Amino acid sequence: MVDQDSKESIRQVIDCLNSLAGTRYTYRNKLFNKLILGRLHDGFTVEDLQTVIKKKCDDWIGTEWEKYLTPETLFRPSKFESYLNARIIKNEESGGMVF
């Protein structure tokens, strides 16, 4: 069973993803909960997970990669830390961000 603090952390992360990516993921999905709690147990914070969401939304929305804005992709142990530590470089031509 997931404790109340963990439920609130999951809710904050899923709400962030739904808000920025225009998705409708729920808090009840056991796989999503496991992935989010796994990253938190690895020592990352809710803010770290939200940073990854923001970076990847900025990077992928409007591209062929947009379909990968899912908890399975964003919070996968093998990719999460590289997503978190991706450098943000201002693209002078478009005014957008490049990672």
Characterization of this structure:
With 99 residues, the protein is mainly α. 58% of the residues lie in helices and 4% in strands. It has five helices and two strands. The protein has helices at residues 4-21, 30-41, 46-60, 71-74, 77-84; strands at residues 89-90, 97-98. The chain has a two-stranded antiparallel ribbon with strand order 1-2. Helix 1 packs parallel to helix 3 (46-60). The longest helix has 18 residues, at 4-21. The protein is globular and about 40 Å long. The termini are far apart.
Strand content: under 5%
Characterize the main sheet.
2 strands, antiparallel
SS elements, strand count: 2
Distance between the termini: 37 Å
In one word, what is the shape? globular
What is the gyration radius calculated from CA atoms? Answer: 14 Å
In which order are the strands of the major sheet placed?
1-2
Q: What is the helix/strand order?
A: HHHHHEE
Helical content band:
55-70%
Average pLDDT for all residues: 91
Oligomer: single chain
The count of helical stretches stands at 5
Low-confidence stretches: none
Class from helix and strand fractions:
mainly alpha
